[in-house]
Specification:
Elements lengths: L9 E5 L5 E12 L2 E8 L11 E7 L6 E5 L3 H19 L2
Antiparallel strand pairs: 1-2, 2-3, 3-4, 4-5
């Protein structure tokens, strides 16, 4: 499990109503050759519901920012979530 750089722990998305939704990036997990961000909305964010979100990270070659793509494949979501939880439990037992 890769942890984000200190300056990349938070991202903000704007929803259809123009509201900012702020997310904390908890970890970046590599799965089947792709990177996935495991995120938690900040409590004051309109998206906050206590659930984790998983986004695929697509690096933009001509831009310094990454693109986050929603994951619809439930098997990918389950696999990334399981890997995240396994690593989290390992870190807590140290």
């Amino acid at each position: 499990m890769k942890h984000p750089e200190d300056n990349a722990f938070f991202v903000s998305f704007t929803d259809e109503q123009g509201r900012a939704n702020n997310f904390e990036i908890l970890a970046v997990i590599e799965y089947e050759g792709k990177d996935y961000a495991v995120m938690l909305p900040e409590p004051d964010s309109p998206s906050y519901n206590g659930m984790l979100y998983i986004f695929e990270i697509a690096e933009e070659l001509d831009s310094p920012t990454d693109t986050y793509i929603g994951v619809e494949d439930q098997s990918v979501i389950d696999a990334v979530y399981e890997m995240f939880m396994d690593e989290l439990l390992k870190e807590e037992n140290i």
